[in-house]
Amino acid sequence: MTMFSDSLRAFLRPILHLLDDQRISEIMINGPDDVWIESGGRLSRVESTFTADTLLAAARNMAQYVGRPLSDDQPRLDARLPDGSRIHVILAPMARCGTVITIRKFHPGGFSVEDLVGFGSLTDEAAHFLRVLVECKKNIIVAGGTGSGKTTLLNALSQFIGDDERIVTIEDAAELQLRQQHLVPLETRPADHRGKGAVSIRDLLHSALRLRPDRIVIGEVRGGECFDLLQAMNTGHGGTLSTCHANSPRETLSRLESLALLAATGLPLTAIRAQVSAAIDVVVCQNRLRDGSRRLTAISEVLPLDGRGDYRVADLFVFAQRGLQRDGSVVGELRLAGNAPTFLDKLRADGFSEMTPAFFGCDDGGFGLSDSDTQVGVDLDALE
Which residues pair with 27 in a beta bridge? Predict the structure, then answer.
């Protein structure tokens, strides 16, 4: 079974061996004679080349293949190929080096949480806790930088959603691979050449709320739809999962705040912050480390605002880096931060009796949280 149709493969002949190599996760074409790949988390340049005309023809064939416009008037394309691979195209002269194409390859079936544990991305304890959070319908934001593995982790977490739930997914370019029976996948649509017909994430979220969802899963929140999402989470739509571009739990909350402000609701900043802190239960941070490995670096509970209206977070798991090996590999592990979540009693009431303070490395009564705390974290140096 080929990755693309015969016609598309013909246009991509110079990189066919890269497309068929399962060890390669991403192909980056920076103009006709500059091709890079990512394999094992590391970037390397390859000798493959196109001519300017054949590369442009390949880009246009991709656009035709997915039924989306790509022209001088609309020089950008973000789409999913039928095999599941995600593509992004930018035409010259916006791309000064010539036509730019990035292909993020599709992994059939996706990765499970067990796979991620096997890769060393997270620990068994963290994986179990994340499963409990999903099954107990906590609202979770997976945060990280570009290429950090946010969508991979979100996809893995979705396996814990029950088959008896109605799930609505919303994405720009569909990458999620949910296998549940009752699934309603929605995908945005760009405007046509007349600037009409666009369907945004915000539009689809409004529709999703009228489709009687048990779960809403949004591939990435990136605009004013964030405000509508916060409203949904604050009015009974528990168990919502999404991703966001940010590098730390606190930065994630500030990022969501900024996105919610794009909705131009006229609410004061303190009201927006209250919405953010009330809606999000847990932030999970995923990062691409300097050696190219993807690691879960924090699981943090979002606490109520402090008396000054500032965000508070309590780290439950944190990644502690201890150094580098001679080959540049990062040495470190995900560790308990010594804080138990404030909703621990609710988890036990939902049947997870193992969720005790001891599970989180705390004394039987010690949660280490107080109303005066502005942030509850962990000193990584103390963990060495």
Answer: 37, 103
Q: What angle do CA 95, 65, 41 make, to 5 degrees?
A: 55
User: Is 90 exceeded by the pLDDT of residue 34?
Assistant: yes
Question: CA 11, 17, 21, 23 torsion: positive or negative?
Answer: negative
- Residue 368, pLDDT score: 45
Burial of 22 (0-12, 13-18, 19+ CB in 10 A): exposed
Residue 346 three-state SS:
helix
Q: Give how far Cα 129 sits from Cα of 3, 157, 160, 257, 353, Å.
A: 36, 11, 11, 26, 12
Residue 304 is classified by DSSP as P
> Average pLDDT, whole number, for the chain?
88
User: Residue 340 has which token pair?
Assistant: 């138990």
Closest Cα to residue 310, out of 367, 371, 363?
371
Is the bond preceding 93 in cis, omega lying within 30 degrees of 0? Answer: yes
Percentage of the chain exceeding pLDDT 70:
92
Integer-rounded Cα radius of gyration of the chain = 22
Give the mean model confidence (pLDDT) for residues 175-187: 89
Q: Which residues contact 383 (CB under 8 A, 6 or more apart)?
A: 318, 320, 335
Centre a 10 Å sphere on the Cβ of residue 362 and count the other Cβ atoms it contains: 18
- CB atoms near residue 332 (< 10 Å): 19
> Can you read off the two tokens belonging to residue 198?
């666009």
**247 pLDDT tier (thresholds 50, 70, 90):** very high
Both tokens of residue 36?
């890079």
At residue 255, φ and ψ (nearest 5 deg) are -65, -45
Locate tokens 């599970």: which residue? 359
Q: Which amino acid is located at 300 in the chain?
A: S
- What pLDDT is attached to residue 94? 93
